[in-house]
User: Fold this.
Amino acid sequence: MSVIPYNTDTISNEIHTEWAGKTVHFAKEIDSTNEWCKRLSKEDAVHGTLAVAEFQSAGKGRLGRRWVVPEGNSIMMSILLRPDFEPRFASMLTLVMGLSVAQAVKELGVDVSIKWPNDVVVSRKKICGILTEMGLEDGKIREVVIGVGINVNLAEIQEELKDKATSLYLETGKTYDRNFLIGLVMGKFEKNYEKFVQTCDLSLMIDDYNMMLANKCQPVRILDKLDPYEGVALGIDREGELLVRVADGRIRKVCSGEVSVRGLYSYV
Ligand code: BTN
Assistant:
């Protein structure tokens, strides 16, 4: 278990932003930081409020899965956002956060990439998952909560996940200060979010994203239940869809949320 202190103050001390993570809530144990952020939202918490937990008793993953991580070694955090834009743009924020985490991890000197749409991977295995949830009121966004789980200093991965998941520690042999990494992620996210709201799309960060795309120019299989197919991933467009060139030369657009993408021979 990591011995570096990890609490509201140690996290706040590493966050040097205008608004992202300016207010930090920390709990030794909580059900889920996403759920906690939704409760904070009801209590009028401000845009950029960050909830961090050492342990989640009911951590949530995508597609109704659970996110189960032991205490002491991981980052489990959620940021509360109160955007003015239309609800249809919100799903792209998952990609904005994925890019931000990847950029932050890269700054630690780790060779990192993004498995579209939002898994951050090292050595072709996942080190970070992101779950974005939106609450509406009268057809407008009340809040967007982006939950981020990063496997930082985990020394062991559950048997059933070993071929798909890893941690920064397992890949580099080094331990990392979670406070510092949260600070890096908040800094990157604030910058990327400010770009995003200018256009309500990814056009101002598309090159940064594509540069970090794990599958770029590689064969991929699109796991669409009704219409699975293979092709070569070319990169994302400004709406965050993955462009895939199929055998007859056509370019198909894959919409995140609908399908999963795999490398032909492995998870990435
Ligand atoms: C995924 O399935 O890849 C998404 C996992 C998201 C996990 C994080 S941990 C912090 C936040 N709170 C949750 O309950 N889930 C997210």
User: Anything to note?
Assistant: Residues 215-263 form a domain with the SH3 type barrels. fold (CATH 2.30.30.100). Residues 178-199 form the longest helix (22 residues).
